[in-house]
User: Fold this.
Amino acid sequence: MCSYITEQPTLSGSAKGGAGWFRIQAASVYFDHPQHALDDHTLNVDLLGERPDQRLALELSAEAARALVTSIEAALAAGEASHLRSSGRS
Assistant:
């Protein structure tokens, strides 16, 4: 049974799709049946731009999604720490 629970954060950033780069304004994140991936259920992430054709979609297994979250957290922590050191702030 699917819950249809969707998280919709407001975002600021860019993504590159088939037609080139576009600004990201929001995302839809949900755990459901995939359209293309081979898993029974996936974490689905749609990064959304200003226009309907500006969309980047991900379908990740639960393991892949958790690995991506861990990698994002590690990269943010290391990058922020490095920038604080180089700017002389603590």
About this structure: Strands lie at 6-7, 10-17, 20-32, 42-48, 55-60. The helical segments are 62-87. The radius of gyration is 16 Å. Residues 11 and 25 are 5 Å apart (CA to CA).
